[in-house]
Amino acid sequence: MPARLIALLLLAALVALGQPAPAGAQPEGDVFRRVSPSVVVIRSRGRDVSASGQVRFGEVGSGVLISADGKVMTLVADDIVYPNGLCFSPDEKLLYINCSRERLIRVYDVKSDGTLANSRIFYQYTGPERGVPDGMKCDVEGNVWCTGPGGIFVHDPAGKVLARIKTPGHHPTNFAWGDDDWRSMYITNIGSVVRIRLNIAGVPSR
After folding, report:
1. What is the predicted pLDDT for the residue at 137?
2. pLDDT, average across residues 31-37
3. Number of alpha carbons in the 13 Å side-chain half-sphere of residue 178
């Protein structure tokens, strides 16, 4: 594992435990006093790192941050109440961010420097069933898979619901692609982990 990635994961672990970020890991002027990341995603070229979660800057707020050098984190999305799941489109030109409280997914254009533009709502979940947007991934065709009320929803790149996978027992909280062909999905439910096989491959983890 590259040393820079190890350092980033260590930083994420420290701040997840509520520890202040090390000197040099905060923007100039100590704007962000502490971060508590929920999800970290890294673009394939390994330069830009995005993290979602709670950001403390005077008042407690939420947002998505990006780091291009492993040290300075810059707030790039602050228009979402409680950011949770993150995922890039297969070509990494779009970043999807879901909000567990508002039960929606937003999508942003990713600029060449890793910052975001053109925020818009991708999908708004409704319905009485338990479950919120949390775990989220893309498959190789650009479809977006996301946990939601009563299961895992499959959206086409325009946001249209193509299918919903209902899981046994409690609602799903997260999932990951797996196995050699990336056509297996491992799903965490409350109290269990299940595996299903799919006809499409997920975007491989890097």
Report:
1. 94
2. 49
3. 9
Rounded CA-CA distance 31/16 in Å is 18
Note the CATH number of domain 127-206: 2.40.10
Residue type, 107: V
CATH for 1-124?
A: 2.120.10.30
Q: What is the pLDDT of residue 37?
A: 57
| Tens digit of each residue's pLDDT (9 = 90 or more) over 56-70 | 333 334 566 666 665
Predicted TM-score of the model (pTM)? 0.77
**CB-based contacts of 50, cutoff 8 Å, min separation 6:** 40, 41, 42, 64, 65, 66, 76, 86, 95, 114
Smallest CA-to-CA distance from 154 within 168, 127, 135, 171 is with 135
More confident residue, 9 or 167: 167
Identify the DSSP state of 113.
T
Long-range own/partner contacts, residues 198-205 (CB < 8 A, 24 or more apart): 200/139, 200/140, 200/141, 200/143, 201/139, 201/140, 201/177, 202/137, 202/138, 202/139, 202/140, 202/145, 202/177, 203/87, 203/88, 203/90, 203/137, 203/138, 203/139, 203/140, 203/177, 204/177, 205/176, 205/177
pLDDT of residue 31: 39
Q: Give the three-class secondary structure for 10.
A: helix
Per-residue pLDDT reduced to its tens digit, 129-150 = 889 999 999 999 999 999 999 8
Domain definitions of the chain by residue range: 1-124, 127-206
